[in-house]
Design brief:
The protein is of the alpha+beta class. The chain contains 3 helices and 11 strands; from the N terminus they run βαββαββββαββββ.
C-alpha cells in the first residue's frame, strides 16, 4: 500500500488563505506641528504647575488630572478633530459600509523625564484610543533615549510558544506573539483599538517627553 500522503508534492493545490482578526493601528503626521506643539507645550507645562499628577498607567512622570480638552484650547481641538476624522475613516458597520459617527472624546497630557514610563494597559469602555506627540525628548535623533510606544500581540504569546523562530505569513512580519514598537516624533498621531495592550518604554533622555493621549467613544447609534 502506498504510504499515506506520499506524492502530494507534485500536485498543484488551489489553496485559498484568508487572514482574519487583524488589529488596525494607524499612524499619520499632522501638518503645522511646530507652531501647534509650541503652544501645546506651554499649556501643558503651565497646567503641570497648577495641578498635581494623577496616577494611572504612568510609572513616574506627570499625568494631567483634568481632561486636557478643557484647558488646552484650540490646538487641542485640532488634534481631536483629526482623530475623529481618522476614526470615522477606519470604522465600518457590519455590512462593510461607511457610517457617520458622533464621537465623544476625552484627552489628557503626559510628561515623562528620565526613567519615566507607562506600564502595559488598555482603555476599557472606548472604541478607539490614540496618542499625539508634542515633544519626543530627542528620541528621533538618538535611538538610545528609549521612550518608544509599544503594542502587544492581542493573541498573547501562544503564537510564538511552540517554536519562537517560526511565524505565519500574515503580513505582520516577524511580530507574531511578541510586540511592535513605534518611534515617537513631534506631530505624529497614532490610533488603535482601546482594548489593545500598550505601554511606553522608559525614557532615558535629559529633556522631557510630552504627549497627549485620548479616547473616542460612540455617544449615539451610528447614522
Amino acid at each position: 500500500m502506498e504510504e499515506q500522503g506520499k506524492g502530494y508534492t507534485n500536485l498543484d493545490l488551489d489553496v485559498q488563505v484568508g487572514h482574519f482578526f487583524a488589529t488596525p493601528v494607524a499612524v499619520t503626521m499632522l501638518a503645522g506641528a511646530q507652531e501647534r506643539n509650541a503652544e501645546l507645550k506651554r499649556c501643558i507645562l503651565a497646567e503641570r504647575e497648577r495641578e498635581a499628577s494623577a496616577t494611572a498607567s504612568n510609572l513616574g512622570g506627570w499625568h494631567s488630572a483634568r481632561p486636557s480638552h478643557l484647558w488646552a484650547g484650540s490646538r487641542m481641538e485640532e488634534i481631536l478633530a483629526a482623530a475623529r476624522h481618522v476614526a470615522t475613516q477606519l470604522t465600518r458597520d457590519r455590512s462593510g459600509q461607511s457610517v457617520d459617527i458622533d464621537w465623544s472624546c476625552r484627552a489628557w497630557a503626559n510628561v515623562n523625564a528620565y526613567g519615566h514610563a507607562n506600564e502595559f494597559h488598555y482603555h476599557p469602555g472606548v472604541f478607539w484610543s490614540g496618542t499625539y506627540y508634542v515633544d519626543d525628548g530627542g528620541r528621533l535623533e538618538d535611538s538610545t533615549l528609549g521612550g518608544e510606544f509599544e503594542i502587544m500581540d492581542p493573541r498573547g504569546p501562544s503564537v510564538a510558544m511552540y517554536e519562537p523562530s517560526l511565524v505565519f505569513p500574515d503580513g505582520s512580519g516577524s511580530s507574531g506573539g511578541s510586540t511592535v514598537r513605534f518611534t515617537p516624533r513631534p506631530g505624529m498621531l497614532t490610533m488603535f483599538p482601546g482594548w489593545l495592550q500598550h505601554q511606553v518604554r522608559p525614557y532615558l533622555g535629559s529633556a522631557e517627553r510630552i504627549s497627549i493621549a485620548f479616547n473616542l467613544s460612540v455617544t449615539s447609534p451610528p447614522r
